[in-house]
Amino acid sequence: MLVNRRSFLKSALAAGAFPYITGCFAPCASKCPDGKVRLACVGIGQQAWNDIREFEKTGLVHIAALCDTDLDGRQCVEALKRYPDAPRFRDFRKMLDEMDGRIDAVAVMTPDHAHFPALMAAMKMGLPVFSEKPLAHTFEECELLMQAAKKYGVATQMGNQGHSGENYYQFKHYVETGVIDVTKLTKLVAHMNNPRRWHKWNGKVSSFPKAEALTKGLDWDTWLGTASFHDYSKDYVQGEWRSWYDFGNGCLGDWGAHTMDTMHRFFDLGLPTEVLIKDVKGWNPYVFPMQDTLTFKFPAKGRRPAIDLDWYEGVANKPELPEGYIPQGWNKDIPAAKGSTAADAAKNLVPGKFFYMADGTAWQGGSHQSPLKRCGGGKVPSYPKNGSNHYANFLLAVMGKEETRSPFCVSSPLSEVFCLGCIAQRLNRSFKFDPVAKQIVGDEEANALLKGSKGTPRKGWEEFYRV
Question: pTM to 2 decimals?
Fold first, then answer.
């Protein structure tokens, strides 16, 4: 008879030991007789539905449970129709309780503020977890998730899908072989200048929205999760959550994960010592500004000198392009901004990055897995590639056959950079940061936001903040 995860974890903790779990709790041969991972999905509409279909395409998964706070919503129809026999839940806590021993991993694909509690609960049960990006809503939550992943020894993966694509392998090979000499780096830039698909207020918000009648079937308390209490409004749901400081991480959390990730990892940036903000338009205390420029100042590390990373967001807030910059369109794996056309892509820069070297040359790249090019053209060296995509990589890691490429020890520090940038955007001011103490220096209001908005965690949700 198989011992369920919860019983095992309790026994291990009582004995003062905790084994390192690399994949499914029991060997796949005994728990997954057909070699497939039984995956529970928290969030099943919109981007979650895209993720679910990508998981299914791998041929390595059974969709074993569906969980969404708004099961009656039209965004959930396709998933419910596709998997009519999968148990359905509105509350991830109930799902984890009832499916204990019948699932091998959990994918969390919810609004930014709701990633953390579901991930923590699953890891405490010894379950491997996949999280959509950004990893969490606050700096403290990122820290706790990283600690939990280490303590419970489960496979983890953040959903910055390009981190298993060409850009990842190219960056890795070029840095390791010296094609890109990190000692010669002088400046890094990342940008998102397409229409803001989630933002409709143009900075003109003077209060939280008025309370509205709750949508039928929506579990609002669970939707709020650890966040401070807000009355229901349609202006918080269906993707609008990303606009609000209390629920989302804005443009930076959305696109930074797809443009900064390889620079952050392979240039070993870590955490900054200062975050500067300028060129702000449409600022207000409720939703993210319509445009701004952030500069993250990273200290020297190893062979790399101290370096700045500039982030530009906003349709009109475009960075100065390096000499020889090659215009590029949307890569096939990149979701275009809602309402964008090919003409928009030609008129507006597609999300991307570039960086400068000491000899005056520059490299450029797009978003997601878009490969690097030398500005001005010219052949670039070849590089080895791996076969598994980001979704298969996670499932194979659950089986103990691969290591994930964006585990929480990698994606948490990256997401913490976003969280620091969001604090600067929220307060509309710059600050210094101590990357050793992990504290904002000389600014109590900003430092308090490392833990989130006032009233977070909401009463009854404190347990998730204990690793």
Answer: 0.92
Other Cβ atoms closer than 10 A to 85: 6
The helix (H) or strand (E) run that includes residue 50 is helix 47-57
Q: Which architecture does CATH list for 22-161+404-409?
A: 3-Layer(aba) Sandwich (3.40)
- In this structure, what token pair is assigned to residue 79? 């998933």
pLDDT reported for residue 204: 79
* CATH node for 163-202+232-389+415-448: 3.30.360
Q: Among 44-48, 208-212, 341-345, which is the least confidently predicted range? A: 341-345
Structure tokens belonging to residue 289: 């500004």
Q: What residue spans define the domains of the chain? A: 22-161+404-409, 163-202+232-389+415-448
d(CA 223, CA 307): 40
**Confidence band, pLDDT 50/70/90 cuts, at residue 327:** confident
Closest CA to 353 of 244, 250, 265, 243: 265
Count CA within 13 A, CB hemisphere, residue 181: 6
**CA nearest to 91, candidates 123, 62, 125, 114:** 114
